[in-house]
Amino acid sequence: MYLEESQCPHVESEQGCPQGHRPTFSLQTQQGGAICLLCFSNLLTTPRAAPTFHVSYALSQLSQALSQPHFLSSLLSSHPHLLISPLLHALSSFDDDPIARQLIDVIASLCDSAHEAVFHDFVSRVSELISSRALAWSRRQVHTLHCFGILLNCDTNNPYAYIKDKEALVSNLVAGLQLPSEEIRGEILFVLYKLSVLQYEAKDDNGADVLGSFCPKLLHLSLEALIKTEADDVRLNCVALLTILAQKGSLANAYANDIDGMSSDEADNFMQTTEDAQDGPQLTVLFAEAIKGPLLSSDSQVQIRTLDLIFHYLSSDGITGKQIQVLVGENVADYVFEILRLSEYRETVVNSCLRVLNLFSTDKQAFRQTLVVGFATLIPVLRYVAEIPFHPVQSQTLKLIQDCVSDCPGVLSTSHNDELVFVLTRMLKRQTDEGMSMLPETFIMACSVFVALLKSPTFHATSTLASSVQEASKYAVLACLTISEKDPSPLLHSLYFLKETYAYSHNDFSTDSSINLELRNCIVDVCTSHLLPWFTMNISEIDEGIVLGFFETFYSILLQDSDIQVTEFAKILVSSSWFSLSFGCLGLFPTEKMKWIVYLMLSSLVDVLLGNDTGLPIRDTALHLSSDPIDLLFLLGQQSSHNLQLSSCQSAVLLILHTSSLYDDRLADEKLVLASLEQFILVNSIDFLCGATSSLTLMPLVSLYGLYRGLAKLSYHIPYTPEAERILFRMVTENEWDLASAMIHPESLKWLFQQEKICKPLSYQILKLCRGITLNGNDICAHGKIYHKLNVQTFAELVAAKDNCGARLLVCLLMELVEERGQENDILSVVNIMTTVINIFPAASDQLCAHGIGNGIQKLYYNSIHSSYPQLSMAISLLLFNILRSVQPEVLSDDESWLALTTKLMDYLTLTVAVYNWGREGLLVIGILSLILRHSTKRALVEVSKPIIFNTSLVSTINNMIHAACAKGPALTDCDEETNTGENLIFVLILYYFCLRSLYLVLPGVDWQTFLDSSNGMLPLSTINIRCDDLCRLMHFGSTPVKLVASYCLLEIFNRLSDQRKRKREELKCSAGYLMSVMAVLEGHVFYSDIRVAMNCSCCLSIILTWEKLDIKEENIIARINWCRLIVEEMAMYLAVPCVASKFCISHHKPAVYIAVALLKLPKIPWWMRNVFDDSCISGLIENFTASNVSTEMIHLFRELLNSQFLKAEHIASLNRVLQACRKRLVTDNSRYDNRDEQVEKMVPIPDDLAEACEYLIHLMSSDSSLYMDHRESKTRDKRLLEEIEMFFRILTVDNDN
């Protein structure tokens, strides 16, 4: 045979080959040569016909030619089957490996052609060749098997169909597995693997399972081969075959056959051995031993295939826990954990390991120990898979961790807890922030792991994780509320997680209770801010399971101790119409389970809101109650005297209606509810009037009846039954009940206090309230509001209102206790509650006075109990002080009770000072007298004020006290408000101030000049009279409070004296020296640190400076004016500095402004005033003058500068712009202060010590003065500011007209 023309030039293709073969057997090649197919066949089939290298060369040339389309086409069209036999003969004849590989390549090339017949013929003949004789160890047999494997590996054709004797082929192959050659076993295993794949892809026509009939032996031999081999390629082939068999269930069936093939005694012995020694049948043990080698392989591909084999084996239907026990007992799971530990987080390895471990975990008992050992390996793996959204083994990893934590909580260490909580919290946070980052089953497992952690003992010992648990529970809930899923399981698991977190917050995991409290607050906030709104909005779209989950979660929170969080949660629920919502759920899901949980939760709500075990009737009768509120009302109309169950149901219905009505959650129409209540009262009246009414029934009945009667009164169209009302009033009168300890609707309480027919039982209830509350009790809420209970807050609201009998009942109760000489403690408690009521609602003093509280206090003062019980005496004084500070003057009248009361107070002062100095109560009485005098300035209690003003004993006492104080000189500075002398002096001066304010009404013709120098020959008045020189001494030497009150007294005297001189046009009757000394004291206080003292002194100075025609030498006045120049210059210089004049600076220089205004008003303005207020100074003042720092004093100053022609046109224009802007701002913002002024009195605390009483009285003095007003008089200050602005514009308009 000649292959190339260049090598055999004398051969012509047209003439055939040199051997004389016909030309049709010679095929042209692309290079111009030819190949004789017969010569090639003879070369392959004739033994020793040519050297092997000739054969190799011929094969290589044919292989090249087959790659040429023309040659291949010619071969397949003319002689397609000619080379099959020679090639196969050569394959089974040559021991030379290179030649065998060449032969296999040629065969593969021919089979890869599009000629199916050639491929089928090769498959058929090779399979017959292998099936024809038993396999023995030879290189030729290996080559044949390898070639057959390549043919079977063809993807395009179906080689399995052209194997004629499949059973003989498989039998021969299975038998060959027993050969000692590892190489041949590898080839056999690959062929069997491919046969198994092809068999299951295309069954025989008769449906015969050829491999199945050899399965037990095949499995044993394959596993033995896997045990013996150390070659990874053989392992791969064997594992691949076993994997196919496992997928088809052959491994599981073989295990069952292994058991079935035993005798009964052998099977029993095997089962006992399995239980006792964790051993298994031969096949399972063999399988465990076989896979250990591949699991330890350095080839990751072998490990992955082996793990897949284990996965498919354990996933088979016939596998039970016995096989898992054997594999675990043979430490296969430990091998898997080790692979996972060393995997370096390679994706395929991690996935395969976790799939297998997850199957091992199905037998928790057998796998527990191994899982505990490998637990530490799972945590870093979880960290890895958690960072990849939708990682396929997230849920398997979490399940393994959850199983370990649940079954063996002791395995957790502190570092494990920290790591798990961190990773899980990140997963839940990502799910919330990104919308979807894990599958629902993964989310469920994450919540389950968290729950398992919360239940573990080691987790309870860790307090640092509370904040992370708090965040995680919130993230879990929010993730389910924001992601729309048809599957309710994630939401239910998040609710369960939240419930367990709340239970965890009640464990003592931290010594810091604030951590537990914060955790509970967060959970309650999640429920109220997220879960409750979502539930109410989606109630009609969610299924019963989710509804039950919500109810169970909320119910678990309510079951905890009734702490603040639980109580607030319960209030939020009922305020959100939870009762109506619950009955709506019963309408949507009318099942027994729903009914049971609804009524259980309603009973817990009642327990929390009304007290422990109050909801017991609802729990006891839950299964007997209807799901419809209308049917519940029907129960009330039944007579229940002989039916204990019906009576319990009626009590439950009343509790449900009562609790829901407290928060305005109406379950039925008002007419229907009122009619049912009346029917309940009428049909059971005999039992009620016989005393068979329990408080558990009476209080809800009273509250409900009062509420719906009150609502009927408002609507004017709901009729009622007088007979039912009469029976109820009789029940209230004859039965013991406690209104103060019960929850009651404010409308119901109001209606009760409007019923005069039950005044006596209501008075008793008020007394019980007074007894149960002390002045500083926890039930007092001075400036807040506590609903649904008769406490001081709600009672104060009743007393302050005019539409009920609360004030009259309280006054009558006090009088009754005094007249009947009741217990001192009862009287004291009533007096104290009056004081508290006034402090909460100052308007209550009007109602108390309107109903004769003055008469009640007067009787109490004249009762012997007053003097024998000092604590009561002080409480009465405190009450009287608070009444007088809050009552409106028009409510007071000059009746005998107030006059007698004042006389008694004066007697007390006289007696007290005769025995010892005034104490705390005596000074409080001074304060009371001061308030009486203040009311007289508003033409109330005018006659009552006269005994105070003209009381000679009081006048003498005060004169002596003032004389002693003045005699102290500089030592008086040490007598501040902390000393008895200083305290007495301050209160006396306060009384004197209000005496001065009242004197012009009580004694209209008083000569105010008598308050000046005593050397003027005028007789002193027979009233309290502290002359100006004494007041100046007190100002000069006294403490700051003494200076302040004395300055107010001086200012009042100078104002009255100035008005008198203007009215009578009289001269000043005092010496020049006297007046100069007074001015010296006043000038020394113009820059005093207390702005109020400075303001009062500057106003006094301004009054003196503006007096006309003084009987004093002019040079003396001018000398004093020089001091005034220094004051004015400093003020002008400071306020004109750029960017300095702020509100504080202007306020600090207000006293100097008054001096400047007074000097500008003089008939002859001092010449130096123009030097001070020159153009630059005025320009600086105006530049610093803005709409935000405008004050009445500064406008007054500019007005006088305008009147005195100090201002130029440009100054006036700038001022005009500023004042226009200020006026606009004041008009716009005026509404901000509409309600503030009304609340000033409410904010004054109960003056339970003298310092607060003194501060309040000084506050009244400053409010009476128009000079200085702080932020609390913003409305009045703005009004005066507007008036000053308008006055400035009027003057400006007049000047322009002129």
UniProtKB/TrEMBL annotation:
SUPFAM superfamilies: ARM repeat. InterPro entries: ARM-like, ARM-type_fold, PRD1. Signal peptide: none annotated. Transmembrane segments: none annotated. It comes from the Eukaryota. Gene3D superfamilies: Leucine-rich Repeat Variant. One of its GO terms (biological process) is meiotic DNA double-strand break formation. This is Protein PRD1.
